[in-house]
Amino acid sequence: MLERKYSVISIFKDMWREKILTIIIVLICIALGIGGGYLTYKKESSKANDLENKIASEPVEGEDDYITQLRDYEESLAACEEALALAEEQRDTIQKAIDNSIIMKMDPTNVHVAYVAYAVLDTANAGNILNALQSYINDGGLKEDALKNGAENLEVEGWREVITVGITGNNLFITITHYDEDKVKEIMSVVKKCVENETAVISKTQGEYRIAVTDESYYTKSDVNIANTQNNNNNNLKSYTNSVSDQSNKLNNLKTTIDNFKEKNEVKEGNSIKRGLGKTLAIYAVIGFIGGIILSFAVLALKAILFDQITSYEHLQYAGITVFNRYNVKKQKFSSDLEETISEISRQITKDEQSKICIYGLSDTEDNKKTAQAIKDSIKTEVKDNSGIGECDNVLVVLTNKKDKYSDLESLMQKCTRMGINLLGVVVNE
């Protein structure tokens, strides 16, 4: 009885021999995998869009509690993100003001001061003139003119906080504080020039007048108010920085709460949406490739097990049949030296003290006939063909892969057993 046996390695070798079939199956599975990945992505995208539309739409009476709760979460999330953006904007504004601040660079125990006093003379309209000069200094006119008069390197953006203007009677007092002794003098020089030039502009509306410097001095002082201002600014920055941190933590906690809520309710964003279309298709293509290999293996394994056709010499070897040699029909060449094969067959005959051998073609194909004749021509002892099997003591079978059948081989083995003939083995045409 012929007991058919197979191994994983022999099936993989079948896959290589049947590589066209294997490639077709793998390509089909890859295509199906990519198609499945695309459909999965579209399905999850549609599901996500439907959910977003439900959340974004107006509440409907009796709607799903999940949608209602998720809408509330999304509203809270939007409010939290807005609060975080506002806190960041406020923090950045204060940080920019501190970076551009002259006061923040001062040493409160060593403040450099420049002072000048003007008197408005030869006019009965001194009050309006002084107010116009004060407005010019405080409201940006001085800043614009200073930049035109070579003050680009004197931190003009920060002048508003270090220039103080006072009015008493017909007198105008200007005080400038700074962290650098030389720069405070440069700034005072520019300010005086701009104020004196502005008198010509003001006289066009207020009438002719003149101004005169009545006092001017430069000195150093300690100023606790500057220390207080610096502390207040630093505390404000710290407060808004903490506010940003708090809002950020609140936002992250809310996102975690939403993710946990979605996971608990088994409604969460699909993995394909997270990965993106390209990566999803690549993953499904790999899955399709692996599936194609497995399917090819399964198809060829079932083919070997269920079908009667002999598909490879390895299966014969696993079934306990001696394979002496293999003949490549296309190349017309034996896989190993034919003389060595004949020597091995002769040793079998000599060992059994037999002298007659039959070269038996398992089927009446041209390939079997040619291979059988090549072996006959090389054997020196008496050789019979199929019709002379009854006169022989040994049989060497010639068969062809994918054409001959296990059932025919098994019938021959049973016949040899009944007749007391020794079946030496086979030569396989491939």
Order of helices and strands: HHHEHHEEHEHHHHEEHEHEEHE
Which range best describes the helical content: under 10%, 10-25%, 25-40%, 40-55%, 55-70% or over 70%? 55-70%
Main beta sheet: 6 strands, mixed
| Strand composition percent | 15-25%
- Structural category: alpha/beta
For the record, the count of structural domains works out to 3
Quaternary status: single chain
Average pLDDT: 83
Shape: rod-shaped
Uncertain stretches of 5 or more adjacent residues: 59-63
User: What is the topology, as strand order, of the major beta sheet?
Assistant: 6-5-10-9-7-8
Count of alpha/pi helices:
13
Radius of gyration: 51 Å
Task: Tally the beta strands.
Answer: 10
Q: How far from one another are the termini?
A: 25 Å
How is this structure best described in words?
With 430 residues, the protein is α/β, with parallel strands linked by helices. It has three domains: 1-103 and 230-307, no CATH class; 110-221, EIF_2_alpha (Alpha-Beta Plaits, 2-Layer Sandwich); 313-429, 3-Layer(aba) Sandwich (Cobalt-precorrin-4 Transmethylase, domain 1), CATH 3.40.1010. The chain has helices at residues 8-17, 19-56, 65-99, 126-138, 141-148, 181-206, 224-264, 271-275, 277-306, 313-318, 338-351, 366-378, 406-419, and strands at residues 111-121, 163-168, 171-178, 210-221, 323-328, 333-334, 357-361, 383-384, 394-400, 422-429. The strands form two sheets. The chain has a six-stranded mixed beta sheet with strand order 6-5-10-9-7-8. A four-stranded antiparallel beta sheet has the order 2-3-1-4, covered by helices on one side. The longest helix is centred in the middle third of the chain and has 41 residues, at 224-264. It is rod-shaped. Mean pLDDT is 83; it is low at 59-63.
